[in-house]
């Protein structure tokens, strides 16, 4: 299951684009691939021609995206023999990207995406409780524990993402899995802001462990309720951060707001 899930995640992140604003879409896809660990630090990207073909964009569009990522320190290009474009993961990547995404997203879009995330997670949890294998349940429990024990916001955000993708996969629905992965591009980067607080990480891990327990017990309605409440609470936290930083250069974090 995990190999299939990794393949699906890569297929979605590196699939053809069919939306306007393709340069920004390529940037977001590659940022998300780095954040999820699909592209590891030091990994070499495909050639510009091959990568442009995968995204179904013009080579010039891809070069614009790579240039922007180089300025952010996420991509490093080496010339000569053995050269190419390589992934770099700056420590500030996750919070900087999260702040920019939260502050720039129009309120109606934020509300709609929050509602959609809760709906996808709820449907995934309900179906997973009916269909998940023992291996699926064990994987969910492991991811929840890793989130609770995460030492920083970037790691926590990554395990949160993997949990929601794995939950959709346990529902045995390719469409739900695809939507869960798409949400990692459009919404989940902002979670780095709420996971800056260690207590939020521990609480989030505990609540996701409860979801895994519900799936194990086959309690479909309770699984839906618990994960929907969690995603709704997370949206409220983000909304508060957004409101408190309105007009500021960037959004704060849960840790900063608690000071």
UniProtKB/TrEMBL annotation:
The keyword DNA-binding applies. The keyword Hydrolase does not apply. Residues 240-259 are annotated as: Disordered. Keywords: DNA-binding, Transcription, Transcription regulation. InterPro entries: GntR_C, TF_FadR/GntR_C, Tscrpt_reg_HTH_GntR, WH-like_DNA-bd_sf, WH_DNA-bd_sf. It comes from the Bacteria. This is FadR family transcriptional regulator.
């Amino acid at each position: 299951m995990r190999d299939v899930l990794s393949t699906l995640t890569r297929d979605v992140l590196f699939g053809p684009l069919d939306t306007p604003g393709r340069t920004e879409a390529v940037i977001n896809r590659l940022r998300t691939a780095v954040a999820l660990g699909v592209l590891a630090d030091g990994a070499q990207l495909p050639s510009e021609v091959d990568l442009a073909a995968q995204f179904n964009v013009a080579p010039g569009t891809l070069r614009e995206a790579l240039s922007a990522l180089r300025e952010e320190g996420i991509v490093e290009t080496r010339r000569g023999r053995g050269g190419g474009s390589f992934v770099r993961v700056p420590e500030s990547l996750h919070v900087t990207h999260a702040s920019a995404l939260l502050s720039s997203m129009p309120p109606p879009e934020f509300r709609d995406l929050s509602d959609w995330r809760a709906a996808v997670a709820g449907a995934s949890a309900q179906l997973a409780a009916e269909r998940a294998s023992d291996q699926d349940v064990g994987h969910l429990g492991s991811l929840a524990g890793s989130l609770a024990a995460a030492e920083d916001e970037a790691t926590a955000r990554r395990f949160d993402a993997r949990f929601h993708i794995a939950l959709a996969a346990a529902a045995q629905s390719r469409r739900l899995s695809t939507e869960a992965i798409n949400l990692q591009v459009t919404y989940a980067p902002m979670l780095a802001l709420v996971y800056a607080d260690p207590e939020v990480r521990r609480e989030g891990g505990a609540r996701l462990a409860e979801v895994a327990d519900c799936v194990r017990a086959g309690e479909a309605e309770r699984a839906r309720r618990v994960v929907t409440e969690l995603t709704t609470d997370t949206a409220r936290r983000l909304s508060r951060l957004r409101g408190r930083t309105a007009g500021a250069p960037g959004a704060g974090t849960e840790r900063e707001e608690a000071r």
